[in-house]
Write a structure and sequence with these properties.
Elements (H helix, E strand, L loop, with lengths): L1 E9 L16 H12 L5 H8 L16 E2 L12 H20 L2 H17 L2 E2 L5 H18 L4 H6 L1 H20 L14 H17 L3 H13 L6 H4 E6 L6 E5 L6 H19 L8 H17 L9 E2 L4 E2 L14 H11 L5 H13 L23 H5 L3 H8 L12 E2 L11 H14 L11 E7 L5 E8 L17 E9 L1
Parallel strand pairs: 2-3
Antiparallel strand pairs: 1-8, 1-11, 4-5, 6-7, 9-10, 10-11
Helix pairs in contact: 3-4, 3-5, 4-5, 4-7, 5-7, 5-8, 7-8, 8-9, 8-11, 11-12, 12-14, 13-14
The protein binds 2-acetamido-2-deoxy-beta-D-glucopyranose (3 copies).
Length: about 500
């Protein structure tokens, strides 16, 4: 009655190189998009038609690079931040055209935008608003750069200019902010969750782009244990019982403030979790899928249903009731959350599904992206294009669920064709498949022959089974540094009852 559906192997980045492109878009995503476009299927076709006709998707797009970017008119400067967010959106859109259409002119256009900013940018607002730029536009610029990491002229001429600027102006501030070193952070929960989430997304993106596992790990760790409001347990601050079903849903930290910013939290949680997922780290499932618990709460309330609200106070703000300001706000992120939780994971996500449908309807048939669905900062907080990048149809889901393990697709992390029946998960089978993967990435494969402990956990859902392997690494090989022991490999088997 059971058959192996998927066999995913999650490797920490020090074992295998980082995967590229591996931020919000992978090669698997690009292949899927291409195959849908060949067949003129929607929502991909409509999304693509839009992306390729807006000004922010044209190869002759002219960058707007300047030396100072300001969100606020204060301290004698004039607000001009749209110059950067327009360029970041154009760079990402053109990067997608490079991956899908393969013409050098698109990659060249992205390189021109990123290099121009690398050469000119010097400063941001003096006040706190600078941290919105470093987070929101930070993660976007790196996502664009990641898409042309395979374009040699950029790698040879522009990438180091971009990277040096980013490290100095964005990354340094991302880290300063998340370490609560700014004077305005007299209380570590001073800033609402979205401020930290976007800065986490930026650090993580840059860590992956530059293959810096210290940065990648910093972002993962902040997500799991961060003491500010970007830490997931603070971001989805209270667990409550859903009326009628008794299910546990999660009250978001910004729910008493307004729904527009709360929606931004889910948009940024999606970015953080998907970037990590594409490197084999599953933040989506962290703490009982806390992101999903929050998404279900948000979607239920924003579709005009009641939710319980626990009075919230953090020393800076207090809310006794949930806010109905901007109730029903939508942003492109629900395709991603729905596809991941309901389709990839097979979890129950009824409100998330409804909110995905609602968002798609509100946006005219597909989730738009930067430059396609309106002006103003909120339309450019994230890169969007969720229907193009993440929508899965029945054939995609069926392919994932195929009982034939040799057709397992790479849905995140590394996949292997190993066929391990549920009844006989054994350490030797895990070692064999792990070693097969390691030889695949060109490293030595004696790591996992050493003694290891294997623990298996059957999760609440009867169809899921995880295996955690903590092998004793062979530190004589060059791929494992002593600073990274112990190696922990999480292998996840997903079964279906047929
Ligand atoms: C990773 O990033 C940190 C923070 O910028 C830096 O100190 C460190 O040198 C980087 N590591 C590598 C290997 O580049
Ligand atoms: C999961 O959430 C609960 C409730 O917020 C918290 O007490 C617990 O520490 C969290 N677990 C982890 C691993 O973060
Ligand atoms: C969402 O939309 C899809 C496609 O139109 C439809 O098949 C599905 O039933 C809808 N789901 C809900 C919960 O309304």
């Amino acid at each position: 009655m059971t058959s192996v559906l998927l066999f995913l192997l999650f490797l920490l980045p020090f074992v295998s190189p980082f995967l590229h492109p591996g931020l919000l878009v992978t090669d698997a995503d690009i292949s899927r998009i291409k195959s849908k476009l060949e067949l003129n299927l929607d929502p991909w076709q409509s999304s693509w038609a839009k992306l390729t006709t807006i000004p922010y998707g044209q190869p002759d797009y002219t960058n707007n690079a300047v030396s100072g970017v300001y969100r606020d008119t204060a301290n004698g400067v004039t607000e001009n931040a749209e110059l950067l967010w327009h360029d970041a959106a154009a760079a990402f859109n053109l990067g997608l055209r490079w991956k899908v259409e393969g013409k050098a002119e698109y990659a060249e256009a992205v390189a021109a935008i990123l290099t121009a900013w690398g050469e000119k940018l010097e400063n941001f607002d003096e006040g706190d608003d600078q941290y919105l730029i470093t987070g929101l536009q930070g993660h976007q610029l790196v996502n664009a750069a990641e898409l042309i990491r395979d374009y040699t002229p950029f790698v040879q001429n522009g990438m180091s200019t971009f990277t040096a600027m980013f490290e100095r102006l964005f990354l340094a501030k991302n880290l300063y902010f998340l370490r609560h070193e700014d004077g305005s952070e007299h209380n570590v929960k001073h800033f609402f969750a979205n401020w930290e989430l976007c800065n986490m997304a930026s650090v993580m993106a840059f860590g992956i782009f530059t293959e810096n596992s210290t940065l990648f790990d910093f972002a993962l760790d902040y997500f799991k244990t961060g003491i500010g409001n970007g830490g997931i347990n603070n971001c989805i601050s209270n667990l409550v019982e859903e009326p009628g079903t008794g299910k546990t849903i999660g009250q978001p930290q910004e729910a008493g403030r307004d729904q527009g910013h709360t929606g931004l939290d889910f948009q940024m949680l999606g970015v953080v979790a998907q970037q990590a997922w594409n490197q084999g780290e599953d933040l989506y499932s962290f703490n009982n899928s806390r992101i999903l618990q929050g998404a279900e709460y948000y979607a239920r309330y924003n579709l005009y249903n009641d939710v319980p609200f626990v009075p919230y106070t953090n020393g800076i703000v207090s809310y006794d009731i949930i806010s109905d300001a901007s109730r029903g706000a939508f942003r492109p992120t629900w395709e991603l959350l729905y596809a991941h939780y309901a389709q990839v994971k097979g979890l129950d996500a009824p409100w998330t599904e409804k909110y995905k449908n609602y968002t798609v309807t509100q946006m005219g048939g597909f989730e738009g992206g930067g430059g396609s669905w309106g002006e103003g900062s909120g339309h450019y907080d994230g890169l969007g294009w969720g229907s193009l990048l993440y929508h899965l149809d029945e054939s995609d889901v069926a392919a994932m669920k195929s009982a034939n393990p040799s057709s397992v697709s790479d849905v995140g992390g590394r996949s292997t064709t190993a066929n391990v029946p549920q009844t006989s998960i054994s350490s030797s089978a895990v070692f064999a498949s792990t070693n097969a993967l390691l030889s695949d990435v060109g490293s030595t494969n004696s790591l996992f022959t050493a003694a290891a402990t294997v623990s298996t956990t059957k999760s609440a859902s009867p169809s899921r089974y995880s295996v955690v392997v903590s092998p004793t690494p062979d530190t004589s090989t060059s791929v494992v540094s002593s600073s990274h022991v112990p190696v922990v490999i999480v292998t996840e088997y997903v079964y279906t009852c047929g």
